[in-house]
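Annex B, item 7. Sequence and structure tokens for protein A, then protein B.
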Amino acid sequence: MARFFISYSRADKAIAQQIRDHISLLDSKHYVFLDSKDITTGEDWQQRLRFEIENADFVILILSSASLASDWVEKETEWATSAESKSGVKKLFVYRIDDAEIPEFLTSRQIQMSTGNFTIDFFRLMEGILQRHSFFTVKHSLELEDRFYYTGTIWIEAHKKFLDLIYMAEYRFDYSFWDKEPENPDDRGTISGKIETIEIDTPEKYTAAIQTKFAMPFRTSQHFTAFVMLYLKNTKELSFVHPVYLTNA
């Protein structure tokens, strides 16, 4: 189950309702907040809106000429991007339904443009949303050491403000690396520990981790897959699957 918030102008109420209905058809357990349906009489609606945005997994902004002129849509967008900065997880997704100008703060985002066919648009919008994007990327470098081994580094790529959110990075490998040279150079069957962690518990470790982007060196003679878990402050952990192929060096 996921929590959705739809930000829209009253002029676009029909398309907002259509999106809400189709998300519910995908899975009845999804919770989709639409202010015209879910705010009750006498409720502090401003407080409720902010609560729903901060607790939503995904915020869908219906971008149109009308929504650009709406002060409340602007405020809801600010709350969504603020929540992203705290969690490192992308939650704001934009569906542009007319020739509205794209605001500068949205130009770096992938925007779903209306094709005039709602079925196609909805499929593409949900396909993008359910990929669960974040502001973190796992990257690696690779260098040939000799005819058997490669050395390299795997690290977390992100803006410093998002790296600041990490308090531990855990790397799990589908097989383990030598922690020392084998006595028999032809013996490549023995394995050592499969889990490595970079945990911040002192200011010195914090500085080192940020400067190196939580980098983990490795030495390998075969392809491997790294399963990376980032533990963030004040939010859920994020997981990544990152394959390393020696032929791509």
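Protein B:
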Amino acid sequence: MKAFLTLALVLFTHNLFAQNRYIVGPQKVTFRSTPDNTGKIIKMVEVTTKMKLVEELENGWSKVTDKDGTEGYVVSRFLTADVPYIFLYESLKKKNEKLQEKFDSIKADHTKILSELQTANTDLGNTKSALAVSRKEYEELKAGSTQYVQLKEKYDNLQKEIASTENEVEQLESQVSTIYIFWFVAGAGVLVLGWLIGLTTRKRKGYSSQIIID
């Protein structure tokens, strides 16, 4: 059913446009009220004027209507179904103007896109440069972080060694102090012992002398 309606619409449209006729001839053509040369001239019709064919008569005349709907007759040989070149020219001119407008619009869009592309390429280059700098700084920071970790580890180890050494020094100092005290006591003991020995020796000498005298 749909296909049938489509076909009917196409045929109707074809017949409708097929009724269009155009005035041809070397000069203006008479548009009469009756299909003969005695009919009243309604007006003179310019060449290339579009008329709508109502009926083509056998006597060489055709019944037509103009753009205002006025009905009349013209000689059939002054009618043609071929579209005049002036109409084709005007139609092509309008199409060309539309195409030119479309082309200008596309050209403007193309120029805009090129400008945006250039800006995007510039931004991309700047971004790549910034990325390269950031990557370099990251690598330097990464290397510095590694060095920092290594140095901190060495520092911590040295701190431990220093603490251990200080502990050993304290122990040695404690031992030295103990040794000094021991030496002092030992020296004092030696002096006291020497004094006692000397004292004892003198007493013995005095006693011996006393015995000998008696």
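Comment on protein B: Residues 85-213 form the longest helix (129 residues).
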